[in-house]
Design a protein that fits this description.
Metallo-beta-lactamase, Chain A; eight-stranded mixed sheet; 358 residues; five-stranded mixed sheet; alpha/beta
Length: 358
């Protein structure tokens, strides 16, 4: 487990210290099964795929995949990444696309990898999200709970300690030098994490908010609870582009704050939108709605299996090892064998208790 977290943090660290953004482009290309289908502009950190006139899908940074919408007089961005440093790199790379000012930021939900770059944007920028996102960021002590703790807060210091022990024990000069570089990268990540100042949205909405920016219409939609209690879907009706955040990725999403039956229902509403392409918060763009149906099937299967294990008195830790979701690996190749993320299984247990006590 520690090794897996360590590898993930090192990938993030490498991105932060520069020089490997093109590697993420290769990953995305491998996932999509071929060359990039959209024109690409490569920044210092971010790769921008031009999806439509003025609409770019930004990948390769630290945290979420973001979206840039260049309008007649201004720019709207969707999500801001894991740290202020990541957001500053994002802002710098956007200048390759346009010199128009960023006036609006949309947070698709409250998780750290989509919002912890918010503080990098000045007071003249409106940060917009569903009502629940402001509640979460202002009341949840988000840097001392999941998903931040396991993904960054506790993991990076543990990785630094582990690397220090490896360096002390290593006798091979080349291997020691490589470990020292990894330690430096992890230490830089830790410094950037300490720069985080959770910044809630300063504009919120309940069900729908429409931005008219010149000739462009941008609809912010709350379709229902799912990945979190307040997921925003960004819909560009004229371009038929939807940005689904982590409500629907092209891979298995983190489930530690999910509302499982509502998630399935909310995804039905997403499928009812007549989009030509979905730009998810992680993964790669997709057009085939079959993947949404397959994720609904995954969610339903997960809940069914975990419910049986919970009813049998199996602890969540054991249930996370025993569930077998390999039947869904065709659409979600990250599934390599039995088992599921413990944080998600614990959330299913808590959600079942909440449901049963209503």
């Amino acid at each position: 487990m520690l090794a897996g977290k360590w590898r993930a943090a090192m990938r993030f660290a490498a991105l932060l210290i520069g020089g490997v953004a093109l590697a993420w482009a290769a990953v995305a290309q491998a996932q999509s099964g071929g060359p990039d289908p959209y024109p690409v502009i490569q920044g210092k950190t971010y790769k921008f795929e031009k999806i439509a006139d003025g609409v770019y899908y930004a990948t390769g940074g630290f945290g979420s995949n973001n979206v840039v919408i260049v309008n007649d007089q201004d720019v709207v961005v969707v999500d801001t990444g894991t740290t202020p440093a990541a957001a500053r790199a994002f802002i710098a790379d956007i200048k390759m696309l346009t010199n128009k000012p960023i006036r609006f930021v949309v947070n698709t939900h409250w998780h750290f990898d989509h919002t912890d770059g918010n503080s990098a944007f000045g007071p003249g920028v409106q940060i917009i999200a569903q009502d629940y996102v402001r509640t979460a960021i202002t009341t949840f002590d988000v840097l001392h709970r999941e998903p931040f703790l396991t993904s960054q807060g506790n993991a990076v210091p543990a990785q630094i300690d582990d690397l220090g022990r490896q360096i002390a024990a290593e006798r091979d000069p080349n291997r020691k030098a490589a470990l020292q570089q990894q330690l430096l990268a992890a230490q830089q990540v830790l410094v950037q994490l300490k720069d985080i100042r959770p910044t809630p949205p300063n504009v919120t909405y309940s069900d729908k908010l429409v931005l008219h920016r010149g000739n462009r219409e941008i609809d912010l939609l709350f379709l229902g609870r799912g990945h979190t209690g307040g997921d925003t879907v960004v819909w560009l009706p004229n371009e038929r582009i939807v940005c689904s955040g982590d409500l629907m990725e092209s891979r298995i999403a983190y489930m530690g704050d999910g509302y499982f039956d509502e998630w399935v229902t909310t995804l039905d509403k997403l499928k009812n939108i007549d989009f030509a392409v979905d730009l998810p918060g992680h993964g790669v763009p997709f057009s085939d709605k079959t993947i949404i149906s397959e994720f609904q099937a995954y969610l339903t299967d997960l809940v069914a299996q975990v419910s049986k294990l919970k009813a049998a008195g199996v602890p969540a830790e054991e249930a996370a090892q025993r569930v077998d979701l390999t039947a869904h690996a065709k659409y979600f190749p990250q599934i390599q064998g039995p088992g599921a993320d413990l944080r998600g299984v614990k959330r299913v247990y808590a959600w079942l208790d909440e449901r049963d006590h209503k």
